[in-house]
Amino acid sequence: MTPELKEQIDKLVNENKILVFMKGTKLMPQCGFSNNVVQILNTLGVPYETVDILEEYEIRQGIKEYSNWPTIPQVYINGEFVGGSDVMIEMYQQGELQQMVEVALAS
Predict the structure, then answer these.
(1) Average model confidence (pLDDT) for the chain?
(2) How far apart are CA 51 and CA 27, in angstroms?
(3) What CATH architecture applies to the domain 3-106?
(4) Contact 97, 77 (CB under 8 A)
(5) Span 32-47, pLDDT tens digits
(6) Rounded distance, CA 7 to CA 10, Å?
(7) What is this structure's pTM?
(8) Helix, strand and coil in the chain, % to nearest 5
(9) Which of 43, 44, 45, 59 registers the highest number of CB atoms within 10 A of its CB?
């Protein structure tokens, strides 16, 4: 990964309290896993941003290296990598995600 790409991803992750690297956009998810994450965040009613990795080839490859996580979507909360669709579903069902999001938005 180039230093420029790492800097670009760092900036995105740190400037947004909740950020999802996904296929498509929050209005038009392009895969089921990305849609799962969007539905969970919409259910929580929290503000979040998305990056469409289908539009950004460098980010599409770079984010996997950045997080050391092979799949998309990838969710970052308060600058920390949380996980993908399965992790988000599990955290949501256990009530952990709501707490994490509340803390992030309050900080």
Answers:
(1) 95
(2) 12
(3) 3-Layer(aba) Sandwich (3.40)
(4) no
(5) 999 999 999 999 999 9
(6) 5
(7) 0.94
(8) 55, 20, 30
(9) 59
